Automatic annotation (TrEMBL), chain A:
Keyword check for DNA damage: no
InterPro entries for this protein: bHLH_dom, HLH_DNA-bd_sf, PRE
Keywords: Growth regulation, Nucleus, Transcription, Transcription regulation
Pfam family name, one: bHLH_ILI
Classification lineage: Eukaryota, Viridiplantae, Streptophyta, Embryophyta, Tracheophyta
Protein name: BHLH domain-containing protein
Signal peptide: none
Localisation per UniProt entry: Nucleus
Species the sequence originates in: Hibiscus sabdariffa (roselle)
Annotated BHLH domain residues: 1-54
UniProtKB/TrEMBL annotation, chain B:
Keyword line: Nucleus, Transcription, Transcription regulation
Annotated region (Disordered), positions in chain: 96-118
Subcellular localization: Nucleus
Source domain of life: Eukaryota
PANTHER family: TRANSCRIPTION FACTOR IBH1, TRANSCRIPTION FACTOR IBH1-LIKE 1
Phylogenetic lineage: Eukaryota, Viridiplantae, Streptophyta, Embryophyta, Tracheophyta
Keyword Transcription: yes
TM ranges: none
Keyword Transcription regulation: yes
Principal cellular location given in the protein's record: nucleus
Organism: Hibiscus sabdariffa
UniProt-recorded name of the protein: IBH1-like N-terminal domain-containing protein
Domain IBH1-like N-terminal per the UniProt entry, residue ranges: 12-79
């Protein structure tokens, strides 16, 4: 299926459905479902919840880092961290 | 710069770009420690800067290839982490509000035309609005772009969380 679309053309249901199922694969809640088609509104709902969770995790981690960094020197560790991250 | 968007993002290169940038910024933040670096105010201030640094590093790693990253970069630039000029922020807010209201009027008509065809049509509109508030720049997107941008945004957010987790674990006692 071609994913090209001109600016003014109407977006087909299929394209939307494609994106919705793509989203479904990204969300842990819905990924393991046997029925591979959750309703679109359910997918969007879970997507919102998932994004909110991720935002909260970022905040918690920033909080944790701000406390941890109070007593460290990060310059020398950068190489070590990068190595462990990218291995 | 090629404008082609690869269909799938290579997680390790985004991860390394983000990690490098973020660590660099963390060093800078850390280098500016005042003497009372463990006071609650200091920690809170540092929390704000770290969070902004994380979001900024991710947005810069994606650059302007995505609507959401462009929106986030714009938002971060007009709201520097320390002082905020009240005048500019109120002007921008009122401009944004006017634009959003205007877009919303247009969006409502667009949403109804694209959603009347599906059986989930009506519900789509409500959930989509909620999603629009969560994804940077979402207010101005049509449904197709919103879903597309959301998928990319989620991928980047999960990378961001993974890297931050690893860093925090690294520094944990």
């Amino acid at each position: 299926m071609s994913s090209r679309r001109s600016g003014g053309s109407r977006i087909s249901d299929d394209q939307i459905a494609d994106l919705v199922s793509k989203l479904q694969q990204l969300i842990p809640e819905l990924r393991g479902r046997r029925s591979n088609k959750a309703s679109a509104s359910k997918v969007l709902q879970e997507t919102c919840n998932y994004i909110r969770n991720l935002h909260r995790e970022v905040e918690d981690l920033s909080d944790r880092l701000s406390q941890l960094l109070a007593s460290t020197d990060t310059d020398t560790d950068q190489a070590a961290i990068l190595r462990s991250l990218l291995m | 710069m090629n404008k082609y968007n690869p269909p799938r993002m290579n997680p390790s290169s985004l991860r390394s770009r983000f990690a490098t940038r973020f660590l660099r910024t963390l060093s800078k933040i850390n280098a500016q420690k005042p003497t009372s670096s463990s006071s609650p105010t200091e920690i809170f201030r540092r929390y704000r800067r770290i969070k902004a640094a994380a979001d900024k590093s991710m947005a810069y790693s994606v650059r302007s290839r995505r609507t959401w990253s462009r929106a986030m970069l714009w938002k971060l630039r007009t709201r520097p982490c320390g002082r905020r000029s009240v005048k500019t922020s109120t002007i921008i807010k009122s401009r944004e509000a006017r634009k959003t209201r205007h877009e919303k009027q247009n969006k409502n008509t667009t949403t109804t035309t694209t959603t009347t065809t599906g059986e989930d049509g009506v519900v789509f509109g409500v959930e989509a609005d909620e999603l629009r508030e969560l994804v940077p720049g979402g207010e101005a997107m049509d449904l197709y772009n919103l879903l597309d941008e959301t998928a990319h945004y989620i991928k980047c957010l999960t990378t961001q969380v993974q890297v931050m987790k690893k860093i925090a674990d690294f520094y944990s006692p």
